[in-house]
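User: Fold this, then the next.

Assistant: Folding the first:
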Amino acid sequence: MVVGAFNTGGAVIGEVLLILAIALVIYLIFKIGKVLFKLVIGIIANSILGIIAIVLADYFLNLGISLSLKLIIPIAIFGLPGVGTIVLLKMLGVPV
């Protein structure tokens, strides 16, 4: 038996695998964060465009639409299609 001779091959492989696993986790966090950031920015932009569109539609078409919470929620969620639906319902005489 030789004193001082250690088998460190397994420890080195374990450390390399640990470093690769940490790098993979960090990469996935950044990738998911980027997707979530784009989603949030898209929802905010869609909401702002929807509110601007409903104000302009009310001004030019004189529909008498008052901005309330029950109108802002579908506009914020669906954006321009929500505005189109609300304007169409108002033009058809459905109380909105």
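Now the next one, as you asked:
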Amino acid sequence: MQLRKMTRTALMAAVTAVAAQIAVPLFAVPFTLQVLAVILSGLLLGPRYGALAMTIYLLVGAVGAPVFAQFHGGLGTIVGPTGGYLVSYPLAAAVAERC
């Protein structure tokens, strides 16, 4: 993997973490700009590296870093009510370019 691709992949994971904090709490699942960042990572990086960026994002959040919406983190967030959305992010980034 080239240094440019690694840097872009890491940056899109970081952009997703920042976009997750811009939220409008309406229901149990907050409305955030996180989904926009997921789709952008797929479009800008391509399916392979977009999915990798989202996998990195999920791994960073799973180990406890507060990167998910409303500064939540940890494995409990992934298995909680918003976990289905989070787990689908690598797949969403991978298919974003195809739509």
